[in-house]
Sequence to fold (281 residues):
Amino acid sequence: MSSTTRNRRAKDPDRVKFNRGRLVILATVLLLAGATTLTTRLLQNQMASALVIIALIVVAVPAIGRALQLINRTVDDRYRGMRDANRAWAASIGGSFDATAAPPPPEISSIAFAEDRRVLVPVTASEVVSGDWRGRPFEAMHLSGYEKLRPGVDAKGRDVSTNLVYLALPHALPDLRIMSGSVARDYGRPMTEVIIPHDGVGGWWRIQSDDPTRSVALMNADVRELLNGWGSPIRIAATGRYLISYGDPTGDADAIAAQLDFLTAFADRIPRGALLGDAAD
Fold:
């Protein structure tokens, strides 16, 4: 598959689930409204109106059930096809595919899910592709969890999920977040904004880090050029020996390959002065 395909539009699984939920709610409301009206008509002895309402309910219930079946079948077929394609792609690059696998290290899952929130159900990983990309180990996966926000904000919590790709590096980098908008909104803890000198990076990127000095060193001319040429809305992060991208809406093989190309190009451009430990000397 081509590694240049980017930003392919596909239904977000959370959006599919949301739309399916809305249909169920609508069906419930309609049935309750019909039952209420039917009861009222019967009490008022309006038999003709009651019979019409009964007929409408008899027709509507199977129709709504059929619509739900079609939605489920469409979603299942789509994900089955993508899963099979990802499995074939993993085999073609000498990698492996697992329908379910152990989640990545906590420092990686905390990148995808806000750090000031509690994951009540352990994070799970599915559709996991593992292998080497140009000599560097990688994993791509769909992460799912259940979060509860701060007390008093959301007592019931919510389901959370995202597609994530990470590339393993030989040396550690400072914690770094590169995305559009404010990092603090996602992570709940403010990081220092990194001011890039000279020509900087495109205005849609926000860069924040716990080590601004090394992060400025990281954003050399080659890295800035790479970022400015990358038109994807995915988010980029570095923590320890991992370079991470997440937030892609598709999770298909083309999107994974495009992110791996980008992360590899990013890693190839990292200057020694941005590394942590002895590697920086």
In short: The CA atoms of residues 22 and 28 lie 10 Å apart. Residues 1-18 have pLDDT under 50 and may be disordered.
